[in-house]
Amino acid sequence: MTETQFDFQANIRKALANRQLRSNLSFAMGSMTAKRKAIFSDAAAFEALRAQGNAIRRRALLQLPELLERLEKKCIENGMSVHWAETTDEANRIVLGILRDHHARRLVKGKSMVSEEMHLNRFLADHGVESLETDLGEFIIQLDGETPSHIIVPAIHKNKQEIARTFHEKIPNTPYTEAVEELNAIARKTLRRKFYEGEVGLSGVNMAVAETGTLCLVENEGNGRMCTTVPPVHIAVMGLEKVVEKLSDVPPLLRLLTGSATGQLITTYVNMISGPRKPDEKDGPREIHLILLDNGRSRILSDEQLRQTLQCIRCGTCLNHCPVYTRIGGHAYGFIYPGPIGEILTPQMEGLDKAGGIPTASTLCNACEEVCPVKIPIPDLIRRLRNESYDPNGSVPGHGFKRTFAEAAVWKAWALVNRHRGLNALVTKMAPVLSPILPRLGPLEAWTRGRIRPRFSQKSLHERVREKGIKDA
Amino acid sequence: MRQYPPKPEKVYFFGTCLIDMAYPEAGMAAIHLIQREGVEVVFPHEQSCCGQPAYNSGFPEEARRVAEKQLEIFSKPYPIVVPSGSCAGMMRHHYPRLFAKDPGLSRVKAFSERIFELTEFLVHVLHIQLEDRGEPVTVTWHSSCHAAREMGVIEDSKSLIRQLGNVKLVTLENEHQCCGFGGTFAVKQPEISEAMVTDKIDDIRKTGAAEVLGGDCGCLMNITGAMSYRRIPITGRHIAEFIWERIHD
């Protein structure tokens, strides 16, 4: 398939051939899915919580423009600055502007998928700013010059031997060790000094509360809190869908997020940031900037069905349960968001013409929908994007990119055959006759690379039923 | 929980296109199982496919046209029994979506209400009792995605196997993980599909079972096709065929 600019099929083949990757993923996923299962062991209670989470997110999206205005107003009242960015380029320039205002050349970063969406590190490097990832997983992959392969566990594709080698090779004067505690200590020691030297700290936002102008951030390592409190300036970047209406919306979403993501009741740190350092306070940043990024989100919001994509709270559990993601890993998807959520989000953000091949990487097994804490109907949205791929009158950017006369004709013929008994009987009759030569043609060629060709019966069920005298009406 | 009707006098049987072309024995066995309970089976000869291949491939209009044909053929108010969780899920849950903007939606919904997956129907409507006449055998069970997650009938299927006294049912590791068929997925993403079916086969081998059973011929075609390719001497069959063989005279 060559319909996408990046070579998805080549990525897939490369990932599948990597035995180490397969084994790392399978090991990690087993433990993550088990932890999640343990924390949501009461099915009825979990269902009620999911319904609540779904309702909160839907309600927020239905009044999104209004909530964003309230959020802005409250944040400003709290002493923060609020910036709006329609594109990732705009968002990058706002970050750079703030850094320049403070003559800052060193940025320490907490984990943020939106900053990945912005390709912020690359942008800042091009403008002479050192941007250091401080989340352990992000730190590891930054050393290796990679991007996250998972929304929550960015270095999930690596095992400890690989990490030991990276530390040994990339951090000066570091002996090779596979002891997890020692590896942690190496990272901690390297990062400590950097937090202190960081002139600006940047973070993502898990939720922003319109009612109170509060930024909610969850984390387990404490590095996020270092980024948001040690440097004199804190920049928070968030996709504009992350706003919720009320403070009381936070606890249920938090339980769903932490339970789904890491199987925890609550994370080690939950930061509720409601403003910069006050005159009588001893610590905290003197400035907080909130950047609200659109990057296609308001367009997604305008479609009643596709809007459900924006319910996502970025827990990553659909990745952990996806039989495709767990075989190929996140990098194969070629863009920022991998797995089931990436399959629906990426083509809408990037355009079907660029990323329209991604939605083919799903068996529609519904495992993602079954686990989604806010009940996003991911398989339905995958189908919608597949439809849009062929639809010249669609609404998603790049729609209709896949439409070829040949494929359209095949499905037209299929519909015709399945509406006419005579034609259907003829095709059924021909199948066993033609099947020996079919592997050399079309779809069965791919099928027979790992399977024997399907054996078609000499006598169809239609014929057997007739012989048995079973009634027609 | 679904409310089940009393035992009817007549049912429609929807054969599915895969059973029609590749697994007619499974279809016949399913029909025999229903007839054995004293219920008349009606098989409309104009029936074809539920429309799922086009529905999942990006051609909803073609899916709708084929679905319309089935709506037209299965017109009387009999229950419609489908020996596949996937096709049953399509007709029960996706037809109303496919015709969401259609003035005839209420007719579609009434049709969807009449859809029953085979084992669900045997257990909850016919309350079938099985007497095993077969030799002792160890089998394992593959839970198909749509039977599990759309129709919720896996326990029904397994309860039927458990009624068979000489059959030992061994649980498959990762029982609920997709086998990699996914209709046109196996053709559009053959490499990933193969990785998935390979893991499924490894799980099956670990059980030591002589046979793997399933309720969907798509999954069975995928799994047994890959096992035969590797010359693994484990067979695979539709549950209806397996049960019928063990209970009839």
TrEMBL record, chain A:
<feature type="domain" description="4Fe-4S ferredoxin-type">
    <location>
        <begin position="310"/>
        <end position="376"/>
    </location>
</feature>
<keyword id="KW-0408">Iron</keyword>
<feature type="domain" description="LUD">
    <location>
        <begin position="68"/>
        <end position="293"/>
    </location>
</feature>
<keyword id="KW-0249">Electron transport</keyword>
<keyword id="KW-0813">Transport</keyword>
<dbReference type="InterPro" id="IPR037171">
    <property type="entry name" value="NagB/RpiA_transferase-like"/>
</dbReference>
<keyword id="KW-0479">Metal-binding</keyword>
<dbReference type="GO" id="GO:0051539">
    <property type="term" value="F:4 iron, 4 sulfur cluster binding"/>
</dbReference>
<dbReference type="InterPro" id="IPR024569">
    <property type="entry name" value="LutB_C"/>
</dbReference>
<protein>
    <submittedName>
        <fullName>Iron-sulfur cluster binding protein</fullName>
    </submittedName>
</protein>
<keyword id="KW-0411">Iron-sulfur</keyword>
<dbReference type="InterPro" id="IPR024185">
    <property type="entry name" value="FTHF_cligase-like_sf"/>
</dbReference>
<keyword id="KW-0004">4Fe-4S</keyword>
<dbReference type="InterPro" id="IPR003741">
    <property type="entry name" value="LUD_dom"/>
</dbReference>
<dbReference type="GO" id="GO:0006089">
    <property type="term" value="P:lactate metabolic process"/>
</dbReference>
<dbReference type="InterPro" id="IPR004452">
    <property type="entry name" value="LutB/LldF"/>
</dbReference>
<dbReference type="Pfam" id="PF13183">
    <property type="entry name" value="Fer4_8"/>
</dbReference>
<feature type="domain" description="Lactate utilization protein B C-terminal">
    <location>
        <begin position="384"/>
        <end position="469"/>
    </location>
</feature>
<dbReference type="InterPro" id="IPR009051">
    <property type="entry name" value="Helical_ferredxn"/>
</dbReference>
<keyword id="KW-0677">Repeat</keyword>
<dbReference type="GO" id="GO:0046872">
    <property type="term" value="F:metal ion binding"/>
</dbReference>
<dbReference type="InterPro" id="IPR017896">
    <property type="entry name" value="4Fe4S_Fe-S-bd"/>
</dbReference>
UniProtKB/TrEMBL annotation, chain B:
<feature type="domain" description="Cysteine-rich">
    <location>
        <begin position="11"/>
        <end position="92"/>
    </location>
</feature>
<dbReference type="GO" id="GO:0005829">
    <property type="term" value="C:cytosol"/>
</dbReference>
<dbReference type="GO" id="GO:0016491">
    <property type="term" value="F:oxidoreductase activity"/>
</dbReference>
<dbReference type="InterPro" id="IPR004017">
    <property type="entry name" value="Cys_rich_dom"/>
</dbReference>
<dbReference type="Pfam" id="PF02754">
    <property type="entry name" value="CCG"/>
</dbReference>
<feature type="domain" description="Cysteine-rich">
    <location>
        <begin position="139"/>
        <end position="223"/>
    </location>
</feature>
<protein>
    <recommendedName>
        <fullName>Cysteine-rich domain-containing protein</fullName>
    </recommendedName>
</protein>
